[in-house]
Specification:
The complex is a heterodimer of chains A (about 450) and B (about 250). By secondary structure, chain A is α/β, with parallel strands linked by helices. Chain A contains 15 helices and 17 strands. Chain A folds into 2 domains: about 230 residues, 3-Layer(aba) Sandwich (UDP-N-acetylmuramoyl-L-alanine:D-glutamate ligase); about 140 residues, Mur ligase, C-terminal domain (Protein-Tyrosine Phosphatase, Chain A). In chain B, about 35% of the residues lie in helices and about 30% in strands.
Chain lengths: ~450, ~250
């Protein structure tokens, strides 16, 4: 009965928030419903015949979840999926509410849930996933998340709570994840890159894991693909990168997106995607591994992956006032470095606008901007402007990287408009923005008919 | 003129944007025609007396901090102490700052011995002190930054703070002191890129290093327009956050 009451109340709140234009109802209804029925998630998740897949990681959660959910949908399953990226228990509850009718009947076969790093133990305990996908662990918003070791400890708790028949799909190129899941030998499916063509020349400054997670000695990297992801080995103990079950032998960046040759034992899959960048190669590899492990046929999986467009603010293209803009969400040093790597690799000489906010969801501490290798942007030699609440901080960072910012516009929408006016008509532009700045930009672009509201995507 | 900047434990203690401080030192020297070399000295590596003109030491996670504390119990600690006594300028942030005090007492596990350069000690607290900070310093004026620490540092009678907290927590959230100074060494909780936004502090460190080389005079002023913008912006954020906090406090106590 409490469950029924919670569902009805939650649905009314969702309807009311959307109706009143307050937002998409991606959190509040869930928050209220969870107050009324604290075990709501457990109750609803247990109704799914094909169970729950949980996806966690600092970067790539939203994209990977979307790739997997679309592939499952293509096989005819009804998928419960928190596609708006609302990944705290309340957002997940709201997602379930949305898939439930007024009588409390859940329309879903399987759930694909991206989950916040710190919420992972609670969500794992509540929804009892059949599969846990761990993508990576990077330095994120230190003021909110604390030190990396704290997150690693939290994840260990989540792994301890996993039911004994659950599968763990994990990135073998991330040393901390390899160590965290070392005890899952038979139930572990590892994935990793094996293409020397996408190797970085050095470990980036922002690389987080330089020490062996087992013994504390320094790690030796034979190859670095992204951040601290690569082929590593401890100089002192036996710890090293486990040989991945699923391997991306080649990663090709084409003008239309990515092409991956993926080996799984003696099987080979040709994965294609509209997404770009090495970080998306990892996301595709994770989704492929999870999809195949869930029993999806390659004939269903591969075409579905090829069709999935970019998620909210992740390489989205929009047309506004005759200009074509590409939107990139930046959340942390590794994500920002990879965004720059993408910009440079496409060789499109479009002006750049970087919008930095420092609200709670962005991380209030903007120190991370100084860990980003903004120097790499110099080779593009395009005008770079800054905006947002911390337009001054990023402008100063750019100046120290040898890039004199050509415009600095406080505010978000104001920055967009004033910057747009400097672009040639029919020109192109890159917009890199932190979370709340991206939300504000997207809202404004939607108002002007250039993009859709993110919860309606 | 050429300065050697030593970045202590660069690989293990650079938790958040500490590179910005080294960038600021190097760039402000370069703009004045002063050559710099940055040497990184890590755990187990030798520190030669007289080799470095300026030290920078950042913050780290618990494990890295313990490794540094152990490393300094050897001859390296002696050399660093002697260099500070000689007047070599040093900036230590967060974890580095704590280890320059007498000791650090964690929640659990043994007490970490410090170098004792500062008459100060640190006790792990239960609550993290996080937020933008504005400090009034008698020598450096308004200093702005971001703090994020659970350690509470208390100053002994011989310690001189960097300044007084106007907004934020500072050393311990109680006595409104922030940081500590001894000779030309400065310890602070203002982490990450404190030097780019506070060029007066950067120039002080550079000037101290040059003075040790027998240089007399004053540093050529630079165009600091952008640094001032970023500085003001950070002060404004601190102000806005404090107002929001006060409003919340008033609302919850009505």
């Amino acid at each position: 009965m409490t469950t029924r009451l919670a569902i009805v109340t939650g649905r009314i709140v969702a309807w009311a928030t959307r109706r009143s234009g307050l937002g998409g109802g991606t959190a509040l209804p869930g928050l209220i419903a969870l107050r009324l029925a604290p075990d709501l998630l457990t109750t609803l998740a247990s109704k799914l015949p094909s169970g729950v897949v949980v996806i966690a990681g600092t970067n790539g959660k939203t994209t990977t979840a979307r790739l997997l959910a679309e592939s499952l949908r293509a096989s005819g399953l009804h998928v419960v999926h928190n596609r708006s990226g609302s990944n705290l228990p309340r957002g997940i509850a709201a997602t379930f509410l949305e898939a439930t009718d007024w009588l409390g009947r859940l329309d879903g076969d399987i759930a694909v849930l991206e989950v916040d790093e710190f919420a992972l133990p609670a969500v794992v305990r509540a929804v009892k996933p059949r599969m846990l996908v761990l993508l990576n662990l990077f330095r994120d918003q230190l003021d909110r998340y604390g030190e990396l070791e704290t997150i690693a400890r939290t994840w260990r708790k989540a792994l301890d709570k996993l039911s004994p028949d659950a599968t763990v799909v994990v990135n073998a190129d991330d040393p901390i994840l390899a160590e965290l899941t070392a005890g899952f030998q038979e139930r572990r499916c590892t994935f990793g890159l094996e293409d020397p063509a996408v190797v970085l020349p050095t470990l980036p400054h922002a690389a987080d894991w330089r020490l062996c997670p087992r013994c504390g000695a320094s790690l030796e990297y034979e190859r670095v693909y992204l951040g601290h992801l690569g082929r590593y080995r401890c100089r002192a103990c036996a710890f090293g990168r486990p040989a991945p079950t699923v391997v991306a032998r080649t990663v090709r960046q084409e003008s239309t997106g990515l092409g991956l040759d993926v080996d799984w034992g003696n099987r080979t899959f040709a994965v294609r995607s509209r997404l770009s960048g090495v970080y998306n190669a990892y996301n595709l590899l994770a989704a492929t591994s999870a999809g195949v492990a869930l029993g999806l046929a390659p004939e269903t999986l591969l075409p579905a992956l090829a069709e999935v467009p970019a998620a909210f603010g992740r390489q989205e293209r929009v047309r506004v006032a005759g200009r074509e803009l590409t939107l990139l969400l930046i959340k942390n040093p590794t994500g920002f470095n990879e965004a720059i790597r993408l910009l440079v690799s496409t060789k499109r000489h479009c002006p750049v606008l970087i919008v930095i906010n420092d609200l709670d969801a962005d991380g209030r501490d903007v120190s991370w901007l100084w860990d980003v290798d903004l120097e790499a942007l110099r080779v593009l030699s395009v005008p770079v402007s800054t905006g947002g609440i911390r337009s001054g901080e990023i402008a100063l960072r750019l100046a120290y990287a040898g890039i004199e910012p050509c415009g600095r516009y406080p505010g978000v929408v104001e920055a967009l408009d004033r910057w747009l006016a400097t672009l040639p008509p029919e020109g192109c532009g890159w917009v890199l923005a932190t979370y709340t700045a991206m939300l504000e930009l997207r809202r404004e672009l939607a108002r002007r008919g250039a993009a859709v509201e993110f919860w309606a995507q | 003129m050429r300065l050697t900047i030593c970045w202590l434990y660069a690989r293990t203690m650079n938790i958040y944007g500490d590179r910005g401080n080294v960038l600021a030192l190097v760039e402000r020297c370069r703009r004045r025609g002063i050559e710099t070399e940055v040497v990184e000295i890590g755990v187990g590596e030798l520190l030669e007396p007289g080799r470095c003109d300026l030290f920078f030491w950042g913050g780290g996670q618990d494990r890295e901090q313990i490794a540094a504390a152990e490393d300094l119990q050897g001859p390296k600690g002696e050399v660093l102490r002697a260099e500070i006594e000689r007047g070599v300028p040093l900036l230590a942030v967060c974890g580095g700052y704590q280890l320059l005090g007498r000791f650090y007492r964690p929640h659990e596990g043994p007490e970490l011995p410090g170098l004792g350069v500062f008459d100060a000690w640190t006790v792990a607290g239960s609550q993290r002190m996080i937020g933008n900070v504005v400090v009034d310093s008698p020598d450096f004026g308004e200093v702005v930054g971001f703090e994020n620490h659970s350690g509470r540092t208390f100053l002994g009678p011989r310690a001189r703070p960097l300044g007084t907290v106007r907004i934020g927590y500072g050393n311990n959230g109680k006595d409104r002191t922030e940081g500590c100074r001894y000779h030309n060494a400065i310890g602070t909780y203002l982490h990450g890129p404190v030097l780019p936004k506070n060029p007066q502090l950067t120039d002080h460190l550079i000037a101290c290093a040059l003075t040790l080389h027998g240089w007399v005079g004053s540093l050529e002023p630079l165009d600091d327009a952008l640094a001032r913008v970023a500085h003001e912006e950070a002060v404004e954020r601190a102000r806005v956050e404090r107002q929001a906090l006060r409003r919340f406090w008033l609302l919850t106590r009505r």
